[in-house]
Amino acid sequence: HLDGFNEQVRTQADLPAESTNGRLAKVVALGGESDTFWLKFVPDIGTDPGKGNWEETVDPTVSTGMNAATLPHELYNSAANTFVFRQPKDAEGNLAWKDRAVGDLTTNSDPSFVGSTIQQAFYHNNRLGFLTKDNVSMSKVNSFFNFYFTSALTATDSDPIDINCSSIRPAVLHAVIPSAQGLILFSKNQQFIMFSD
Questions:
Q1: Model-level pTM greater than 0.85?
Q2: Residue 78: count of CB within 10 angstroms of its CB
Q3: How far is it, in rounded angstroms, from Cα 67 to Cα 75?
Q4: Minimal CB count within 10 Å: which of 4, 67, 96, 185?
Q5: Is 107 within 8 Å of 93 (Cβ atoms)?
Q6: Which residues make Cβ contacts (< 8 Å) with residue 107, sequence separation at least 6?
Q7: Strands 74-79 and 161-164
């Protein structure tokens, strides 16, 4: 009995236990595009081709992320009385904004502030947040410059938050105040509270 596949399979169980390093496979589940995900073959040490594991990866046909040059910058104090306006960097000196590592534009979309004017930036509960139009976007926990999900298959508590204020009138958020009950969000004519149980 011999099974083969070109680029896509119905379930992860249809993938072979042996393949070549970096081989990509699209898993097209029964739920449609929202259940589709990509896997990449990673061989065991020293075995290429050979046995290994299939790990979740990003759709090769989509952008890996946002344009860091158009994202918020920081005013960095590089020495006494010396400030540098630059793109944020991590401890190793690399650009801090993280790329999409898994999924596609449906299962791991860009945050809602992309293509919009950011009205306010804030920190809350170890997350960096932005207000744009009637949206609140917050980074992953303890990863201030990562606005993408860890997995396209499952949600985690540390995943980014990106929600829209529900209102019958247009609401452009312009300010935020942290409180013990949650975040109080302000628009011109309304206030909202964002909280979690």
A1: no
A2: 8
A3: 19
A4: 4
A5: no
A6: 34, 36, 37, 149, 152
A7: unpaired
Output the pLDDT for position 73: 93
> In whole angstroms, what is the distance from residue 42 CA to residue 50 CA?
9
Which residue, chain included where needed, has tokens 């011109």?
Answer: 188
88 alpha-carbon distance from chain centroid? 17
Q: Which residues of 145-159 are buried (b: 16+ CB within 10 A; e: fewer)?
A: bbbbbbebeeeeeeb
With 0-12 / 13-18 / 19 or more C-beta atoms within 10 angstroms meaning exposed / middle / buried, residue 136 is buried
Query: From residue 114, how far is each of 38, 126, 176 by CA, in Å?
Result: 24, 21, 19
Torsion angles phi and psi, residue 126, rounded to 5: 60, 30
The pLDDT tens digits along the chain (197 residues) read: 445 566 878 888 888 888 888 888 888 876 666 678 889 988 887 767 778 888 999 999 988 889 989 999 999 998 999 999 999 998 888 899 999 999 888 889 999 999 899 999 999 989 999 999 989 999 999 999 999 999 888 888 899 999 998 878 888 899 999 888 889 999 988 889 888 87
- Residue matched to tokens 């409180």: 179
How far is 61 from 7, CA to CA, in rounded Å? 13
Partnered with residue 26 across adjacent β-strands are 8, 38
